Amino acid sequence: MRAAAWVAVGGLALAGAGATLLAGANPLEAAGALLRGALGGPQQIAETLVQTASLLFPALAVGFALRGGLFNIGADGQAVAGGLVAGLIGAAWPGAGGFALVAALAGGTLAGGAWGALAGVLRARFGGSEVIATLMLNVLAGLLATYLLSGPLRAPGATGPETAALPESVWLPLLMPGTRLSVALPLALALAAALQIVLRRTIYGFELRAAGLAPETARRAGIDLGAIAFSALSLSGAMAGLGGATIVTGVLHRFDPALSPGYGFIGIAVALVGGLEPARIALSAFGFAILQSGSLTLQAFAHVPKDVIVLLEGLAIVALAGRRAFVARATLPP
Amino acid sequence: MDGFALELREIVKTYPGGVRALDGVDLAVRPRELHALCGENGAGKTTLAAIAAARLQATRGRVTAAGTVGFVPQHPHLVERMRVWENVVLGREPRRGLRLDAVAARERVRNLSARFALPVEPDARIESLDAGAMQRVEILRELAREPAVLILDEPTAALAPGESDALFATLQTLAASGTAILVVTHDLGDIAEYAERITVLRAGRVAARFERGARASEIARAMVGGELPVLATRIDGPTAPCLEVRALSARAGADALHDFDLDVRAGEIVGIAGVEGNGQRALADAVAGLTPYRGTVRLDGRELSAGDPGGRIAAGLRTIPRDRQREGLVLEWTLAENLALGDQRRRPLRRGPFLDREAARARARDVIARFDVRAPSLEARAYALSGGNQQKLLAGRALAARPRLLLACEPTRGIDVGAAALLRSRVIEARNAGVAVLVISLELDELFELADRIVVLFRGTRTGEFARDGFDRARIGAALAGVRAG
Q1: Interface probe with B: pick from A197, A217, A224, most Cβ of B within 10 Å
Q2: Confidence of residue B219 (pLDDT cuts 50, 70, 90)
């Protein structure tokens, strides 16, 4: 199916070129602007890597749950829950330094996990659809955070629903001085590596994959599908929550309810393009980050609306779905 | 066309991954002919049928047909929530303006049903039908397109004994009235009686061709390419109580069991006979802990709780499920992964939180050798195996764990004589070694070969029990029909 893959890539390039022409710009110039914006210098590369980390956490969260047959479309809400708790912890102990940072990340992870666990309980106990539960919990997380920060937990002197700015002692350490590139990226990559091992080597990963691919077979093999749904959605939420915590402590340095502008949804695409394999999801996140961070230059300098990038991301998913048709022709339906 | 209804010339099919399923096969079906295509599992029958029906592309070769080709697959492909008439007209609905003309559609289905002598109830929902009725609906759906050839893949696999005779009689009438019929099957009794010509496939090539009048034993030899394997000898040892079922009432879909008692001793094979839908599924699901029930199920004296299949496995129950693809396998997984399933939490497969991949491969090598699983490699995916080899894999998995109780549901359904004999031998050897075995099968012949005792189920209750020295087709047949005996 290598040929089909190249056809798909070529088709995407053509579609991008076509859309650019329609927008009245030169496709080659646009591609140049995109790449300059994403990879044109140390600053640009650093910013693309920041995007990579921000996309990788929710993408790993979505991909992990999906291996268990569970569609978590609530990574944004889980990131908000995690970011809120991380922001509150980080702002609470200005003098505690490294300890407060670790506590903020751990608290964010737990909060995201708890937010995911809500959907997990609904699914495991009552058979409720996790798609609807996680989607609705997105809205709830945003509103709850806004309420808390406007009311009971309002920071002194705050103008909007934000926590106080975090003291520098609870910022994630930078990898490149003068940029925003922090240890969030190596943290995300370590998570990807750990998930690769969990999925491939552990008994939990084995049971999760069985439940995702063949639930009836898994049930008869003694695998508790409810326990899998609960644990997978909780862990998935925890990953997204950690991602939110790294955005708060590494990028924004305060909590803002808009900290995850659709990363959870793009994360679905990132995870699918990565074939739900953590290592390939990491590569896929880098690819999407190039598009994301290049899209601003594209708009500013080549005068191509950045929605062209959204269009390309959408077409990539369509191409991926179409691949099944090619594969199915050559084999007997099982 | 040389007057053939269907002609396949030098068909070669190589699957991705290099497995050559067909290697230069010629097959011609004449008009008004009932032609049988037989062979062992993995011989290439289903692949050839799918190519003939244009469901699958051949790698090389030529397919010509005198008209459209109808295809009835082994597992029903019907919309379960819809009615019979809706399924039959699906895709070719009669219209009035923009609307579906339901009156005309029902009329069309009734006419087809009368013309081809295939009784169906047009307004029944598919999910309420038994296997035989579903099959009639599928045949009608295909016949509605007036095909030149009708291909049926293993049509008798899901049918009760009496039903397959009725089916073949119908097919014979159909052939006589002009539709050529190609039946893919391993059921030799029916073939010898009804088929006009027989083509036998072995390992992707035509091994032999027969005309009507050939003996079943000749055909069987051509299929296996030698003599039939002999069953393992039963060696009686000491027995002890193992499975004790008391006052069990359970339900599985439309299938129900009422107030049922059963004992299976270690070192004994008990067979459950019955026409499909008389409580077998409810019994199997209750024993396997998959469905809620009233009454008690004890294994080795310990009472088991309902709704806990994992607890059953820990107590030593292993199952060969009735639907191997949906209930037994993860089709996308390798053989080694599939063979680890169910024992992943026990030694030697468990090593701390990890699955010991070397132990899983060792188990796979062992099962593949003992059960003669024909697979390209340990890394082959389960979906790449033929039905018979998938079944050997599941039986091998169930017995590799040295169970206390083996629950085998239709253990040899849809697989060829050679594979069936091998599986039955392994089950008898397990019994000799002291395993308690409960076999649920629609095939009386299978129970005659395997069981020490046969218990007959009718409408969820016991209508007879027969010891091995008292197996009698007539008396068991009466019990199957609800006449209490023994």
Answers
A1: A217
A2: confident
Do the beta carbons of residue B53 and residue B138 sit within 8 Å?
no
% helix, strand, coil for chain A, step of 5: 75, 0, 25
Side chain identity at B22, as an amino acid letter?
L
The confidence band for A328, taking pLDDT boundaries of 50, 70 and 90, is very low
Residue B100 CA neighbour count, 13 Å, CB half: 10
Closest to B157 in 3D by CA, of B38, B75, B68: B75
- Record: contact A213-B332, CB cut-off 8 A: yes
**Torsion angles phi and psi, residue B280, rounded to 5:** -60, -45
| Domains defined for chain B, CATH in brackets | 6-224 (3.40.50.300), 240-480 (3.40.50.300)
Predicted confidence (pLDDT) per residue in A159-208, tens digit: 777 777 888 888 899 988 888 999 999 999 999 999 999 999 999 999 99
Distance from chain centroid for Cα B88: 24
> Cβ B333–A213 below 8 Å, yes or no?
yes
Q: Judge: B326–A223 Cβ closer than 8 Å, yes or no.
A: no
- The contacts of residue B478 (CB under 8 Å, 6+ apart) are B464, B485
Residue B407: phi, psi to the nearest 5? -105, 110
> In this predicted complex, what is the ipTM?
0.85
**How far is the alpha carbon of B406 from chain A, nearest alpha carbon, in Å?**
14
β partners of residue B300: none
A103-106 contacts at long range (C-beta below 8 A, 24 or more positions apart) = A104/A170, A104/A245, A104/A248, A104/A249, A105/A242, A105/A245, A105/A246, A105/A249
Whether A91 maps to a domain, the answer reads yes
Q: Which residues of A touch B344 (CB under 8 A)?
A: 203, 206-207, 221
Distance CA A22, CA A9 (A): 20
Helix (H, G, I), strand (E, B) or coil at B255: strand
Stretch 300-329 of chain B: residues touching chain A, C-beta under 8 Å: 309-314, 319, 321, 325-329
* Contact at CB, A220 and B344, closer than 8 angstroms: no
Domain membership of residue A100 as a residue range: 50-294
Residues B352-390 as b/e (b if ≥16 CB within 10 A, e otherwise) read eebbbeebbbebbeebbebbbbbbeeeebbbbbbbbbbb
Residue A202 domain-assigned (yes or no): yes
B356 touches chain A (CB under 8 A): no
CB proximity list for B351: less than 8 A, separation 6 or greater: B359
Which of B16, B46, B340 lies at the smallest CB-CB distance from A330? Answer: B16
A168 within some domain:
yes
User: What DSSP state is assigned to residue A169?
Assistant: G
